[in-house]
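In practice, a research group might receive sequence data for several interacting partners and want a quick structural hypothesis before committing to experiments. The following worked case mirrors that situation: the sequences arrive first, and a predicted assembly follows.
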Amino acid sequence: MYQVLLESIHTKVHLTEAEQQLCQSFFVPETLHRRQFLLQEGDVCRHIAFVESGVLRSYTLDAKGGEHVVQFALEGWWISDNYSFLTGEPSTFNIDVLEDSAVLLLTKDAMDELVLQVPKMERYFRLLMQNSLIALQRRLVSSLSNTAEEKYLKLIQTYPTIVQRVPQHMIASYLGITPETLSRIRRQLATQHRL
Amino acid sequence: MYQVLLESIHTKVHLTEAEQQLCQSFFVPETLHRRQFLLQEGDVCRHIAFVESGVLRSYTLDAKGGEHVVQFALEGWWISDNYSFLTGEPSTFNIDVLEDSAVLLLTKDAMDELVLQVPKMERYFRLLMQNSLIALQRRLVSSLSNTAEEKYLKLIQTYPTIVQRVPQHMIASYLGITPETLSRIRRQLATQHRL
DNA sequence: CGCGGGTTTGATGATGCTCAAGCCCGGTGG
DNA sequence: CCACCGGGCTTGAGCATCATCAAACCCGCG
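A structural hypothesis for the assembly, expressed as tokens:
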């Protein structure tokens, strides 16, 4: 159950057996089903979630009701609305479940207590943040400087599993293009490749 | 000299006099002049910089030589290439100085030592990261879902000082649009406003 | 005074969006 | 087990937004 989490931690900091045990005790495991919501716009994001198995996604709705995917989370990823989680303000995100999933939930209080009792975890979370920051920066630059096709190719290269496991219109939303455009890009890439 | 830095820290964690002194000792103050480079593409980013006064910016060059502004940093902001700083890999960013500036430099070794000797700083840096993450996420969503005009208006609202102090073509680059488009948007907003 | 970078303006064109319709496929109920 | 329904993917035609290219303009600075 905590296998994937412990591995994720292990890649960043080294915990003793006792610390691992202690660490686990702060999480609440939960199984979620496809189409279920982990967070709805307007609610406060009470916990960050670690994905042990399955796929989730966060997204926002704009003024015209359009969805904009902010993040996908496969096994080994964290997902939450950081802003709401940190500040206690209502969230502007939705998080829903794309495939039946098992997650580990960590509330803010639990997190604060966790980093107190296992100070190494402060470092783990900081490194997590840093990596997210780097990835986000890359994505932003890509979204500013690349064409739709280039963005799609870059996504396939960076996260092939996401492209495989997530419906196409959500990929399009994630890239900031319409489903129609993505469809046309794929057709063109396919025929091109076939020559 | 360390005034702005200490204030920034104070908004996140509380340091004793002694800790403040200790903290300062890890930074190297430096004054920089307009057009000077703090980091050039290909070099390793050896330090993160805290801006005491002035303005800096980071940007990337794409395949066709186009500039893409990643970040502006005014007084009280940090700037660096996190990826290069963390990993020691050559940077893909440039950081240059837009106005004569005073910065405080922190090397990676100094940072590691700092968080060891003043553990509260680990928390400070984590909170910094979190805030950057939130801001970046907002910017990304905005860049995906808003028109050029909306993005510009949002920027004026969020960071009016940046718009005032930075040349227009860099604002355009930051927003992912051409200088021409930004100029037209501004004209339209002006005439509109004048009716 | 003249140079030069930055901004403005105009004309044209490409990329990606909108709207609308058809298609494919998997799920559901009869 | 088959027929039907519906969502998602595809395709097409027309259109909006923004980019590109080119030229003129403005203004601070040498």
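Before designing any experiment, note the following. The mean pLDDT of chain B is 93. Chain B is about 50% helix and 25% strand.
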